[in-house]
Here is the input.
Amino acid sequence: MTTALGRYETVAELRRLLAERRGAGDTIGFVPTMGALHAGHAKLIERARRESGFVAVSIFVNPLQFDRADDLAKYPRTLDADMAMCQSLGADAVFTPTVAEMYPAQQACTIHVERLADHLCGRYRPGHFDGMATVVMKLLQIAQPDMAYFGEKDAQQLAIVRRLVADFNMPVAIVGVPTVREPDGLALSSRNTRLTPSERRKAIALPEALRAAEAAIRAGVTDASEVIRVATLKIPVDEALRLEYLEVVGPDDVQPVTTIEGPVLIAGALWVGATRLIDNIRASR
Ligand code: AMP
Here is the structure.
């Protein structure tokens, strides 16, 4: 028998429900998202379903983490389809707070991320990771889950969230879930829906560049600037494409690596028309 999936819009309602479930002995698995759910999000929910007694998904497009008003305005919102996906994956509750519920007054206290936000997206999206860390802190305080699930697709975000819970001694296990890709290698992203068919074909340059970097490292190249040069050659000269960054960094400290001697993260951001896509791949010497 399938039970109807509960949708909760207030902090008080969700807290009451989760306290009840915790009291009944369930472990709580929590999957924070911004909605427009796709097969990448599904992997997180499925993993939470396997590992926890009660699965809560949040859908909240957090204005604090958007550095461009047009990106926030254009962010896809597909609540009915999202609810259907959560239901079919066996989630137990979906938390869909309004902006006013999450931010009843302007935050006087926010999280500021040092160092880990200095490179990759942090360099190009001022305030993004402070806004992300602030909302993740709020959501984890609201849900108080045993486990929280995040995608490796957003590797810098995952590194920062791991550090956030360590720095603030939060009793939650952060679980990283591998990136889900289209058959041609493009990482699934809610923003992919904004690509025109021609842009969609061109977007493949980003995972191809990352794969070229990985192959170079596997072939023995240890000079990170050479790895970046080889990878960048995979981005065709095309007026629709603009590579914002392609960097080799340490997977935990997110600091640039000069000589590759152990595990690294190769991460890039590519503008395809008016859409900014990010992706990353891990490689090791
Ligand atoms: P978002 O809704 O974009 O904030 O993403 C919510 C969560 O889903 C984040 O932890 C993302 O890293 C994760 N996620 C997004 N896309 C993918 C993907 N293609 N594969 C795995 N996880 C993903």
In short: The chain has a mean pLDDT of 97. Residues 128-143 form the longest helix (16 residues). DSSP finds eleven helices and nine strands in the chain.
